[in-house]
Design a protein that fits this description.
CATH superfamily: Aldolase class I
Helix content: 40-55%
Number of helices: 13
Largest sheet: 4 strands, parallel
CATH class: Alpha Beta
CATH architecture: Alpha-Beta Barrel
CATH topology: TIM Barrel
Structural class: alpha/beta
Length: 307
């Protein structure tokens, strides 16, 4: 739990692809280094990492590359959820072996209408199979994509059964009332809203920070928001980061994020996505960049940051 005691931002790290759509691991590692240098933790294999377009072997390989880059594993919170229980176990076991601060776990997301009993059995199956006192699990609630909500009753049951292991949740539901209820009902439970735009309201209630798509673009600004010593300074930073997020939300988020990184790093390779996603049309990219330019947004070159 100590890894989440101080509010902080984690970025669901974008995954760069080569022309043949294999992963560009050196570019991925350079980006991870840049994010950490900007004050963000790493949440690789999240939704915006295109995690569910990556194989188990690819995810394990990238986690090994992060470890080999001497990035502090306490900075890393990889996604290990999967539809198949053996895959989730393998990914979670690998994250523990790598020394990660914890794991972020989607529920199995193909079968709809599953019961809390079934979801409890899934999470318990992973935790028991990994069998490590070092494992820390954050649940991942994003029902608009998974079709599988993580209920308050399920959280209560998991925390009662695994109080040292199930330590938090990422709430990507967009339902502010749900976030408030979790903050009030589960004191000491690390609740991460998925949007930095909610931090002004969530931090005073005890939020643990945020795990945000746009932390890939503005990690330093979100880190500054979290560290702001006064409500006035927090509101100023929140205004800055929220306008950028609003611009990105008007587009398809993953291709939009990658298009922006491609522009500011001058590497068009960054714009590639794996099917079924499609990259932004040039006209859409120009419109998005014009919007960001009007906001005064700029992102330093990743390569220049590590020259």
């Amino acid at each position: 739990m100590s890894a989440f005691a101080t509010p902080r931002v984690f970025a669901p790290v974008l995954t760069p692809f080569r022309a043949d759509l294999t992963i560009d691991a050196p570019r991925f590692v350079a980006f991870c280094r840049w994010l950490v240098g900007q004050g963000a933790g790493l949440a690789p294999f999240g939704t915006n990492s295109e995690a569910n377009s990556l194989s188990v072997a690819e995810r394990c390989m990238l986690l090994d590359r992060i470890a080999a880059a001497d990035i502090d594993p306490a900075q890393v919170l990889p996604g290990t959820g999967a539809c198949a229980l053996p895959d989730a176990i393998a990914l979670t076991r690998h994250a523990v072996a790598t020394g990660c601060a914890g794991v972020l776990m989607l529920p199995p997301f193909f079968y709809q209408g599953v019961s809390d009993d079934g979801l409890f059995a899934y999470y318990a199956g992973v935790i028991d199979a990994v069998g490590s006192e070092r494992l820390r699990v954050l649940l991942y609630h994003i029902p608009q994509l998974t079709g599988v909500p993580i209920t308050h009753a399920l959280i209560e049951r998991l925390v009662a059964a695994y109080p040292r292991t199930v330590v938090g949740i990422k709430d990507s539901s967009g339902d502010w009332a749900n976030t408030v209820t979790m903050l009030e009902r589960f004191p000491g439970f690390a609740v991460f809203p998925a949007s930095e735009a909610l931090l002004g309201r969530a931090l005073p209630l005890g939020a643990a920070g945020c795990i945000s798509a746009t932390a890939n673009l503005q990690p330093h600004a979100i880190a500054q928001l979290l560290a702001a010593p006064t409500a006035v300074e927090r509101a100023t930073w929140e205004g800055r980061v929220s306008t950028v997020r609003t611009a990105l939300q008007s587009a398809s988020m993953i291709p939009a994020l990658k298009a922006v990184v491609a522009h500011f790093t001058r590497h068009d390779d960054w714009a590639r996505v794996r099917a079924p996603l499609m990259r932004h049309a040039p006209s859409d990219v120009r419109a998005l960049l014009a919007q960001l330019d009007a906001l005064g947004f700029a992102m330093p070159s990743i390569d220049e940051a590590h020259a």
